[in-house]
Amino acid sequence: MKLEGIRVVDLSSFLPGPYLTLAMADHGAEVIKVEAPGGDHGRSIGRLDGDSTVFFRNVNRGKKSVVLDLKQDGHREALLRLCETADVFVESFRPGVVTRLGVDYERVKARNPGIVYCSISAFGQHGPYVQRPAHDLAVEAMSGALSITLGNDDVPAIPGIPAADILSGLQGLSAVLMALLRRTQIGLGDYIDISMHDSMVSACVNVLGPAIAEGRQQFAKHERTTGGSAFYRIYRTADGRYLTLAGQEEKFVRNLLNGLGRADLIDLCLQGPGLHQAPVIAYFEQLFRGKPLAYWTEWLLKLDVCFGPVQTFPEVLADPHLQARGMVVTDGEGRKHIASPIHFASEPAQISLRTPGLGQDTEAVVGAVNAPGQRVK
């Protein structure tokens, strides 16, 4: 596997850091999850599924769990000695905490100049907001993303997925892999500062046009990806389900409207998003309400049209395409796991479905940890 032989020390919790290190574990890295005596908060988030929550096991499978109390000298020394053999260090504390704990980059680097040290936080390691606490929703709000994520009442709506968490994890993964590649050339590691806020703003590049070019906030429902296009909208069907049209290219417009015998509406759609598309939107709203979702799915599949039914999560887990790609795997206890979305041809992921119990690998990884002020044997 691509990351075989890479050792990762992971002090992160919740989602961004564990999502980063999960990708590495799935592709061969040895990930050592260092937890405080109380354990990662993710161990108690969401539905319990066997011995662990679904949330925890799907972002921490295949890792080793080591429990260390870094407020104790002996435990801190155990971690620093572990870092001497590591390639990557990931942490997600509020800025300043690792310095107080004595495991900041400078101290770890002194033990291992080749280490790639990645810090993930809400607002990064410098700037006016550096000490502000924030989770995903607050970061999405402050990035501007929520200002265009509106319900029919024009009120910001809570997104269904934690975009800031996932995006910062992916940016962190990219940075870690870049630094590891560079290390092969110069022999030195680096320090990485990943901000969830930076990651979210960076992900808004396709919707920042009005703000950058004209200094104004867009009216979301008139823009091309947030409601101003008849071919990029959500429509209700006769059975109370929902269907999306999700492709505005001319070929999709012509294929659908010609197929419906409404070529007269094509020119309105080819003029770009905006109020002039209101007649097309009204037509589609009435049209799709006339038949159930299954009917429209079957009918639209006959055309070359970009669309998708709004599926429930049980439907997604049973989706034959997802199944065919091996994205849903089942462990020996019948519990489902979401597999790695990174598909290599020659060295595919070899996913371990083992969920680590709290501290179960402590002795095997760091040996016996002694009292404060004493070194590990």
Automatic annotation (TrEMBL):
Keyword Membrane: no
Domain of life (superkingdom): Bacteria
Any GO molecular function: transferase activity
Record keywords: Transferase
The protein's name: Crotonobetainyl-CoA:carnitine CoA-transferase CaiB
UniProt source species: Bradyrhizobium canariense
Phylogenetic classification of the source organism: Bacteria, Pseudomonadati, Pseudomonadota, Alphaproteobacteria, Hyphomicrobiales
